[in-house]
Amino acid sequence: MPEHADLVRSIRRWESGKVALMSERYRLLYCAVFQMDESVLFAETTEIGLSHPPTDTDSDLGKMTSLREADRRIGGGHLYATVIGYLEHDIAPRLFSGADGPQAFIAAAAFTEMAGWMAHDVGKDNVADRHFHRALDFAGLSSDRQLQAHIMGSMSHLALRTGHSRDAIGLAQRGVDTLVKTGTSAPATHARLLAMAACGSAETGSVSECSRLLIRAEDALGHRPQNPPSAWTAPYDEATLALDTARSMLQLRKLIEAQHHARRFLTLRAADRTRSRAFGQLVLARTLLKQDQLDEACALITSAAADTRSLSSLIVTQQLADLREHLEAHREQRNVAECLEVLEHAYRERCWMYQ
User: Fold this and answer.
1) Cβ count within 10 A of residue 348
2) Which pLDDT score, from 0 to 100, does residue 238 have?
3) Which superkingdom, per the lineage (predicted)?
4) Which of 9, 114, 147, 348 would you label with 182, given CA atoms 20 to 30 Å apart?
């Protein structure tokens, strides 16, 4: 037990940014517990490093690309400290020196937004909100209006997840207005903002408005950009729109449509996008549970639990826990009982990381 308690404290200090790297002993133990390759979790992130401040935009973009790829596979909790360290040690000095001009503010905005997503992934929504607002301030001091609108989309997403649907709609509209008023052509960002507004409309029960916005989002995504896409914004694609549509349809209790779009998402989304695919699997599972299609729902839930065992994402853990409640009424069925056993084990295995 002392070893377990020490490991928990070490992980908490690492994920909160109080230490840059766990000791070798605890790194090896951590990877053994979660059956992970140490080179994936630690070597890749330390390669991003804190010891050699970048001097140009390409260096920042390379680090951001590496962090995004790692985040998609292992979750935000494992990488939050690295992003904060990079902001403090590499980007902040350039903001004050003025050496890089507006580029330093663009990098600060993009990495701060990334920190916000990682904080959200581990359930620290107040911290995420502060990061997003700070990122928007930085973006406002730059010339990248696509990034500015993109950050408003992230703020809208967070508002949705914290139950503030009308705020989400307003933030999405602000993002659209930023693009329109500045004459900025950014089809993917525009589509994302419209989809966030659609999700907010679904939360308020506005069927017609939700449908109208989703049609506009699909139309926007099909446009050819007149300006080069900002390298600092995360991509928004056909698969993500399908998932946002599935979520909206599920909220509106249009179960056949929700099921169709969730299946389409899983067809489009690559297998190495662990967290993203888990969200799609669980949306489809919830849709199937509402239609009493228990066998396939249990198979999807079991698969999502297994695939995300090494993922540091409280959001995924909470969604798995929520599904336990939906399944309890059917515990007498063998496949459901087995699925519940998997979920209970998964919850016990992961919840201590977020206490």
Assistant:
1) 9
2) 97
3) Bacteria
4) 114
CA 137 to chain centre: 21
Q: For residues 76 and 295, which has the higher predicted lDDT (pLDDT)?
A: 295
CB-neighbour burial class of residue 47 (10 A; exposed 0-12, middle 13-18, buried 19+): exposed
Q: Are 217 and 242 in contact (CB under 8 A)?
A: no
pLDDT of 41 strictly over 60: no
Please name the residue ranges forming H helices in the chain: 2-15, 24-33, 38, 44-48, 57-74, 80-86, 92-97, 102-121, 125-140, 145-161, 165-181, 187-203, 207-221, 238-251, 255-268, 274-289, 294-307, 314-327, 334-351
Q: Taking residues 130-141, what's their average pLDDT?
A: 96
- Do the Cβ atoms of 74 and 35 come closer than 8 Å? no
Instruction: Give me the pLDDT at residue 50, please.
Output: 38
| Residue written as token pair 């962090």 | 67
Q: Does residue 118 contact residue 83 with C-beta atoms inside 8 Å?
A: yes
CA distance 283 to 262: 7
Distance of alpha carbon 41 from alpha carbon 75, whole angstroms: 10
DSSP 311: -
Query: Contact 311/75 with Cβ under 8 angstroms?
Result: yes
| Own/partner pairs, 217-222, CB within 8 angstroms, 24+ separation | 217/191, 217/192, 217/241, 217/244, 218/191, 220/187, 220/190, 220/191, 220/194, 221/187, 221/188, 221/191, 222/187
Positive or negative, the CA dihedral 134, 189, 203, 328 is negative
